[in-house]
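Morning!

As promised:
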Amino acid sequence: MKVYLNGKVVDKKDAKVSVFDHGYLYGDGVFEGIRAYNGLVFKLKEHIDRLFESAHSIVLSIPISKKEIIAGVIKTLKANKLKDGYIRIVVSRGEGDLGLDPRKCKGNQTIVIITDKIVFYPRELYKKGMEIVTVPTIRNLPEALNPQIKSLNYLNNILAKIEAINSGCQEALMLDHLGYVAECTGDNIFAVKNGELYTPPQCMGTLRGITRDTVLSIAKRLKIPAHEHVITRHELYISEECFLTGTAAEIVPVVKVDGRKIGDARPGKITERILKEFRKLTHKDGVEYSL
Ligand code: PXG
């Protein structure tokens, strides 16, 4: 496997970063997870834009241009001969000393691009649907560490994931500090009621997911009314359908929440319609490359 490290594509065994890198010491950095489908990188521009927005928010200047990062992504995919795969871009503050002060990193930002085959949920799960559970750990407060920032500090989500696994579920439903539904550990959430879509507004402790935005635009095209609105757990329990959206998981039907069946506990018609459209889109839209 080849890995992009600071402008060079090197062997995996040579892709090494200092233990003094503040990405390692403090989670001081940002990242993106992207997917390629049959030689097309899906929503690459949107992911790069979000990477730069996350970096801007934590006062991290990315030393290369958006165009250069895009070229780096394509170069790494080609080096690994991957037509389909998962792409992880990581930009960290770089090597500094043992203090928090980011100025000590002296603009030595580390840029890594890893591309690999995607291993995610089994096909079965998309047919049967998933069970999720509300966990005690709430989503980070926007005033503390805004969930819009895809930072290297994912402990908030990891703690929630551990709690879900301890409860026998694969995914956690995270609430915000007011007790409203926020999102899952690596996915946004949608509910269907009276044939209309509902998803929490992005300002309420949720990441502005690119898959979420794609689903909203698919809904518009299919003339399915969609609302960005606060959702309570009760509203989720009584919804007709529920599904999660994320780059890695795509669109996952949810059939049980906190032990309550959703609809008839089978993936819903609207979920399936949107998933079908989404799969069509991922195979026709994107930045093209050839191996
Ligand atoms: N919410 C959170 C907290 C996320 O981390 C999403 C929603 C979905 O966003 P996109 O833009 O992908 O539709 C994410 C996605 C992974 C992985 O490898 C994915 C994410 C973060 C960490 C790991 O599955 N981000």
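The two ends are 15 Å apart (CA to CA).

Hope this helps with the figure draft.
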